[in-house]
Automatic annotation (TrEMBL):
SMART domains documented for this protein: CBS
Species in which this protein is naturally found: Streptomyces marokkonensis
InterPro entries linked to this entry: BON_dom (IPR007055), CBS_dom (IPR000644), CBS_dom_sf (IPR046342), Diverse_CBS-Domain (IPR051257)
Listed name of the protein: CBS domain-containing protein
Gene3D superfamilies the UniProt entry points to: CBS-domain
Keyword Cell wall biogenesis/degradation included in the entry's annotation: no
Start and end residues of each BON domain: 222-287
Acetylation in keyword set: no
Protein keywords: CBS domain
Segments of this protein annotated with the region Disordered: 1-73
Coiled-coil region: none
Composition bias, Basic and acidic residues: 1-15
Chain ranges of the CBS domain: 86-148, 169-225
Length: 287
């Protein structure tokens, strides 16, 4: 991550810091927040340099679903992908589902929004509590007087005329692919201010859902986890791995020791690719 990105992350973390002294529980929370923001900043940096394509755009929001939580991600790979943390199956509604049935579905699933799908399970939009509230507001009071009332009606009138999921939904939807990086999905969710993202295959068909809670749990990793993953990479890249030691402090990985320098640049690149690694210090001397 660049110095500018580090400063941006630190500034954001300070902005969220309380004015009173931190409790013993507050400092770890702030450290976790800095790491999460760092991962999002790294994903944004990759986008700006054109390393990875940006996802489709749209809007929507929800709370985490009540389906079983995904298994803890396997840490053998340096890069976590959406498929490692997404939840399946994902609740959805057909476009022709009536307004009241959509409301009942949200209540039953205990979520704030669900994807709307067509007959072939393609995601065509997202219908949320906000969309339903617009309908309910117009139903409760179809006419309001005065300039404020006219503005209110102008914004809600079209939305309030819908009677089905397809006519009430917000579109186009924001979706992510199962092969997308977790850090990129976090960037997408943060940029669009979404709590939940539908996961679609290359044909736009719904295959799962990933929530901000899932992304946070995957991205916020302690130094011990990062060290274990970095040591695994050392074992894979160096012919004599025991001559190089790994230490991690606040997400910064330091490699020390002596080794053949030939595979070291590739090793350093692999370690930098670990999600939420803040920096990598190369202190490996050539044999």
């Amino acid at each position: 991550m660049s110095d500018f990105e580090h400063r941006s992350v630190e500034t954001e973390a300070r902005r969220t810091a309380p004015g009173r002294p931190w409790t013993p529980q507050e400092e770890p929370r702030q450290d976790a927040l800095r790491r999460y923001l760092g991962a999002v900043a790294a994903a944004a940096s990759r986008r700006s340099t054109g390393e990875e394509p940006a996802p489709a755009s749209g809007t929507g929001s929800t709370e985490p679903p009540v389906t079983a939580a995904p298994e803890p991600p396997v840490r053998g790979s340096a890069v976590l992908h959406v498929r490692d943390v997404m939840r399946v199956p994902a609740a959805s509604v057909p476009g022709d589902m009536p307004f009241l049935e959509v409301a009942r579905t949200l209540a039953r699933e205990q979520v704030g929004a669900v994807p709307v799908v067509d007959a072939d399970d393609h995601v065509i939009g997202v219908v949320s509590e906000s969309d339903l509230l617009a309908k309910a507001a117009v139903m409760a009071e179809p006419h309001r007087h005065g300039s404020v009332g006219r503005l209110w009606q102008h914004r809600l009138y079209e939305k309030g005329q819908g009677d089905t999921a397809a006519t009430l939904m917000t579109f186009p939807p924001v979706t992510v692919h199962p092969a997308a990086r977790v850090s990129d999905a976090a960037w997408t969710a943060a940029h669009a201010r979404l709590k939940r993202l539908p996961v679609t295959d290359h044909r736009g068909r719904l295959v799962g859902v990933v929530s901000r809670r899932d992304l946070l749990r995957a991205l916020i990793r302690d130094d011990a986890e990062i060290r274990a993953e970095a040591e695994s990479l050392v074992g894979r890249h160096l012919p004599v791995p025991h001559t190089v030691e790994v230490s991690v402090e606040n997400g910064t990985v330091t490699l020390t020791g002596r080794a053949d320098r030939t595979p070291v640049p590739e090793l350093l690149a692999a370690v930098r690719d670990i999600d939420v690694v803040a920096d990598v210090v190369d202190a490996v001397e050539a044999i």
